[in-house]
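Why do we bother with holo predictions? Because pocket geometry can differ from the apo form. Keep that in mind while you read this record for magnesium ion.
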Amino acid sequence: MAVERTLSIIKPDATKKNITGKINTRFEEAGLRIVAQKRIFLSRREAGIFYEIHKDRPFFGELVEFMVSGPVVVQVLEGKNAVAKNRKIMGATNPKDAASGTIRRDFAASIGENCVHGSDSQENAKNEITFFFSGCEIVG
Ligand code: ADP
Ligand code: MG
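The structure, written out:
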């Protein structure tokens, strides 16, 4: 298994609930290293560009409004098989379908407000990391 990097976002519902530390503990205990991290407020424009792939879905407007409803923590996670490993730690998109012990099962309220984003492929991870971080902000 190769060492990979993946882009993670702790979403506004989770920053509001003050559980960023609890979420980070899940990553670290699973062997992922947080090699970059910043707490920011996304603009509508930035949220729209980040989720552009979903722009024709019925929930797009709701998703953008949610992502700008409070601060987010964007982070780069590094480790063996990081993309798939993070998706496993996160759990399924809908918390009702998420396996027990996952972040979404334990902390998320709904399919929309589901605490975390994680890249779904190595190619998307590279693009998403570049969207938020410059090279010198990532320290392994
Ligand atoms: P994931 O975040 O698990 O990769 P998707 O890429 O399919 O899921 O969707 C991106 C985000 O859009 C989800 O995490 C969730 O916040 C929101 N979303 C997805 N499906 C719905 C839905 N049916 N209703 C409302 N929001 C949704
Ligand atoms: Mg996705």
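Helices lie at 12-16, 20-29, 44-50, 60-67, 82-90, 103-107, 122-132.
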